[in-house]
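hey
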């Protein structure tokens, strides 16, 4: 229990960063919205499951990779945290810029016509795994939760928790955005939401850059 309390703040911060990252519309979220709005709620849910499976794969690969690197090189964690901090500050900049923009977000329209439920799930997995920014995002997220000398189970908790959050949030997007009224409501609140995202990412990025753990 003492060990858990030691690493819990970092784990919760990693969860918070991941939660805000997937709430902010990216290719994965826009694809789920598009499937729910233009095809059906079931298609959106299948796509959401595929995206969550992609999140699980990225999280697992990142934790295993970072653990191996940190074990081999004592200064690696510092370098990783600096890279993660810079990326979070970049996300903050993008969020503030999006908040100032008058241009509304556009959902992603999937090509290739309608698919089976498995086909939508596979498409969601591909969208998540081929996102060129995913590696940097996961390095930043895992870095928030992994302190120097952290046991392997900390990474396991981060992987399990982020997978559960991904399933929950993307499924909620699929359910909520099958309703035109909720789409309109989200668009009205978009600037406020993006500003809050920017503040959090800026604070998390600064924490990583200033961390000595």
């Amino acid at each position: 229990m003492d060990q858990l309390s030691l690493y819990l703040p970092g784990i919760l911060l990693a969860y918070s960063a991941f939660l805000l990252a997937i709430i902010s519309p990216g290719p994965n979220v826009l694809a789920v919205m598009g499937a729910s709005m233009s095809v059906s709620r079931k298609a959106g849910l299948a796509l959401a499951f595929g995206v969550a499976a992609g999140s699980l794969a990225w999280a697992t690969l990142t934790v295993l990779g970072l653990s191996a690197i940190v074990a081999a090189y004592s200064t690696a964690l510092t370098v990783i945290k600096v890279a993660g901090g810079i990326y979070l500050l970049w996300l903050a900049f993008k969020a503030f810029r999006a908040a100032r923009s008058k241009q509304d977000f556009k959902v992603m329209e999937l090509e290739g016509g309608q698919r089976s439920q498995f086909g939508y799930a596979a498409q969601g997995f591909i969208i998540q795994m081929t996102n060129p920014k995913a590696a940097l995002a996961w390095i930043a997220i895992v870095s928030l939760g992994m302190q120097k000398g952290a046991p392997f189970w900390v990474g396991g908790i981060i992987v399990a928790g982020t997978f559960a959050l991904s399933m929950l949030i993307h499924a909620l997007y699929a359910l909520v955005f099958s309703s035109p009224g909720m789409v309109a409501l989200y668009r009205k609140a978009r600037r406020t939401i993006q500003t809050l995202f920017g503040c959090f990412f800026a604070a998390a990025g600064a924490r990583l850059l200033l961390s000595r753990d």
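Residues 177 and 185 are 10 Å apart (CA to CA). The chain is about 80% helix and 0% strand.
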